[in-house]
Amino acid sequence: MQEYDDLCLELSTIVTHRYSTSFTRGIKTLHKRFHKPIYAIYGFVRLADEIVDTFHDFDKKSLLENFKKDTWVAIDSKISTNPILHAFQLIVNKYQIDKDLIEAFLYSMEMDLEKRTYDANFYQKYIYGSAEVVGLMCLRVFCEGDSILHDQLVEPAKKLGSAFQKVNFYVI
Question: What contacts 134, CB < 8 A, 6 or more positions away?
Fold first, then answer.
């Protein structure tokens, strides 16, 4: 099983390298023990984002719905034949990433299926789910079980994720 785990984590690394030079550079500044977990988180969010932003010739709503189901099955059963989901579930289970964060992220991906203008409330909800929760998932890894440190850094992690997303809106 270790060989499969390693392969899945390696594939998440490849996904990150292919899709984001800035995220890859950022990860390389971290201690090596954080690399694979953060690559696994990025691989997961990248795959979901690809569904909603790229697969235009397909039923994106159905693809995302299946992806969501597969995500929860992978996390609950602690295995997946989808290498990206398998790597992600390893990290979710090892670092006890809150399922509420994952649910908020997936909800924001659903929001992305229909491009529309959001009022301030929905805009904040989108920013939280598409960016802040990614920072909070990474924070679980960085704090390595230290709940006091984690609680102290929740707000700054959310602000950083929000800032990255807002900058991304204006760069695109």
Answer: 41, 45, 105, 161
Q: What is the CATH number of the domain that holds 107?
A: 1.10.600.10
Which residue segment(s) compose the domain that 24 sits in? 2-171
pLDDT digits (tens, 9 = 90+) for 119-129: 888 888 888 99
Paired tokens of 111: 């929001």
Give the helix, strand, coil percentages of the chain, each rounded to 5: 85, 0, 15
The answer to whether 44 and 51 have CB atoms below 8 angstroms apart is no
Instruction: Name the domain count of the chain.
Output: 1
> CA 134 from chain center: how many Å?
5
List Cα–Cα distances, 94 to 37, 118, 140, 141, in angstroms.
9, 36, 10, 9
Residue type for position 30: L
Digit-coded pLDDT (tens) for 140-153: 999 999 999 999 99
pTM higher than 0.85: yes
* HSE (side-chain half, CA atoms, 13 Å) at 84: 19
pLDDT tens digits, one per residue of 89-121:
999 999 999 999 999 999 999 998 987 777 888
Please count the helices (runs of H) and the strands (runs of E) in the chain: 9, 0
